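Intended use. Records like the one below are meant for learning the mapping from a protein sequence to its folded structure. Do not use them to infer anything beyond what is encoded.
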Amino acid sequence: MYRGLLGIPETQDQLRYIKRAGYDVPEGFVPASALVLPDGDAVSITNHLPVAATQRIETAGFSASGASVLDVFFVQTPQVGAGVTYNQASGSLNILTGTTTNAEFLARSVNTYWGSMRLRASIVASQRIANQNFAVILADLLGEGLTYTINSSTSVTVATSGLNFNATMVGQFVFLGGITGAAGVPGRYAIASVSGDNITFTVAGWPASGTGTLTLFGRNYVRNLVNGVTPTNVAWDVQCNGWATGDTTATINTTASPGTILQNELTGRDAWLHDALRATSTSPNYTVRASRYENIPEPDTQFYVFLWSYNGTTAPASTTTWTLGHVTVEQYPNQSFYIQGVRPQGAVNPLPTSIIGSTNAALLASVARVGFNASHGIWYDDSSTVLAANATFTGTSRDLLVTATATAFTNVATFAEELRVSAESDQSGTLWVEVSRDNTNWRRVKSVATAAVTGGGQYAEILLQPSWRYARVGFTNGATLQTRFTIGSITMGA
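Structure written out for the chain above:
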């Protein structure tokens, strides 16, 4: 039962938009240019492109064991060519290629995924040799078990149903795979012509005649293709409505044991290839390997996960085993938003405080604790040398703007809010502080005689809020030689 749809779109792309908007489209409707809802309102087709998806994660873990066993994540009737076998063992799927020319293994997921998503798959290849290919693909499905007729070694016509393809799609590329019957060559081929439901493709290397069935898929896709002899390479590309940039030969960790985990990010705005070594790590270690900003499939595209192994037109030298430890698809919302409206500021709605730019970065990166409000200080161990009778110690000049000496203040323009000085000795004396405007002429502004401390010793301290730029501390001993003495100071930041 369809919901209020009295007209349907003119093209297949518009039809996808409408289905994604939640309207069920019955088969056989005559094309129309607008939607009419039960209340009679016309609805613009382009207003129904969704940009977010429901959060969901689905995984093929390959936990069951046995020959010709395939995780229920996938349809249980994969296309399996001559000499190809598959099994699950030890939590992995193993696909054995055999050595027959053009032999395939093609499986697809039961469910579809749309919107923003993340695809992960772990791959280990027993070897990398010529004429053997393996791909993990997110792709749309155009038809399965479709009848094809070979016109010549370079032309094949596929009979479809309800695709609404037309002459404007000539030149676009799709995948032809899962081929049965004549010795067809699986691959990516361009549309040569469209006549009703019959689509003719330009192919290469096919026999001169014959018929059979095949799967048509991947007008839109994200493809990870393991081919060639280099274990640290993977061919990666993204396609939208039949057009792609062309494969990027991306450098990855390795498909040799322990293997790699390939990860694709598809946001609706761009697409990414990452990978990580299939090994234990103490932190996330995915590395960006390739990206696409154009030819990105539209967010409403219904993707299946395809596993596709296919041999070349020349028989490979020996059998390769493709091992997958898992396949995971995470579909998630990825929606832009904006903030509108302003509250008047005042006692009820106080002005917010923000930490921006490098200040925030400094808080995060330095020893300062974010959210912990405390003054920072610079400590000076001025002296511990004992003084003779009536002798004087004069300390080093300190620039309280912290531009010429220690630089512990995080901002060099921050001045010292307070200078704290203390001294301790076994003999009485006088602790003092001198200040200067020019670091040449000094004025003594505070002095404190030591006082006896219960338990022994003499102690004095000074707290000064400076208003001159330079300061120095000192101590004048009394009439008796000291046997111990310490003096220290600390400048506290504002």
